[in-house]
Every structure is written in structure tokens, then in C-alpha cells.
Design brief:
About 30% of the residues lie in helices and about 40% in strands. The protein is of the alpha+beta class. The protein has a single domain (about 1-120), classed as 2-Layer Sandwich (Double Stranded RNA Binding Domain). Strands 2-1-3-4-5 form a 5-stranded mixed sheet. The N and C termini lie far apart (about 35 Å). The model has no long low-confidence stretch (mean pLDDT about 85).
């Protein structure tokens, strides 16, 4: 997932991290995420194209998430590329702050996806 400072960033279960992010959409009005595609009005197929964090300078970092989402449902079949980016100053813990930046970038992507889900349902 990149290196910030001298700290390598790894994620043992990126699918689980992404799934947990999508589960937060359940808290948004009008959206309910389910695992069974047969019971869904809209099926999302998600592909992570990029997910990384890195230094911009010795004091600043960037985190980026790029995903392709394919939408399939009644009268809906298309795809969209989403990008989330954060740029921050590294204050104390390069590792902890970098994972927080990745989460913030994912949240940007999820906000855009939630908007598009509402348009398609």
C-alpha cells in the first residue's frame, strides 16, 4: 500500500477493509447493503484499481483510492471510476496517520458511490 517515511504500509485483508467501508453505507438513508445479489435491487461489482499512500515531501503525505464499480440492476447496467484523495501533514505517527488518510480517501469514494446508488434506485 506504499511507504510513508521509513514505514511500509500493508493491509492483510484489503477486501475486508473495503467490505467494512461499504457496510457503513447501511447507515445512510435509503441504502441497504446485502451479500446476496439475488435479493438486491442493484448489484455492485467493485474492483480496486489503486490504493496507496506515499510521501509528497518529508513532512506531507498523500493517500489515494481508485475503484471501478459496475452497476447491474433492472434497467441499469453501467460502470463508473471513483477516486478519493487526501493530502496531509505528517505530525506524529506516519503509520497511524497514513491509515487514517487511506480511510478518509475511501470515505470520499463511498460518498460518491452513495450518491450514485440513490440515482440508480
Amino acid at each position: 500500500m506504499g511507504t510513508v517515511g521509513l514505514t511500509p504500509l500493508t493491509m492483510a485483508d484489503i477486501s475486508g477493509w473495503l467490505r467494512s467501508g461499504f457496510r457503513t453505507l447501511n447507515a445512510r438513508q435509503g441504502i441497504h447493503i446485502v451479500d446476496d445479489p439475488h435479493s438486491a435491487h442493484l448489484v455492485l461489482r467493485v474492483e480496486i484499481l489503486k490504493a496507496y499512500a506515499m510521501n509528497i515531501t518529508t513532512e506531507t503525505r498523500t493517500a489515494n483510492i481508485v475503484m471501478r464499480v459496475r452497476y447491474n440492476g433492472k434497467d441499469v447496467s453501467n460502470e463508473h471510476i471513483y477516486r478519493g484523495t487526501t493530502n496531509n501533514v505528517t505530525w506524529f505517527s506516519a503509520e497511524k496517520e497514513s491509515y487514517g488518510s487511506l480511510n478518509a480517501a475511501l470515505e470520499q469514494v463511498l460518498d460518491a458511490i452513495a450518491t450514485d446508488i440513490r440515482k440508480r434506485c
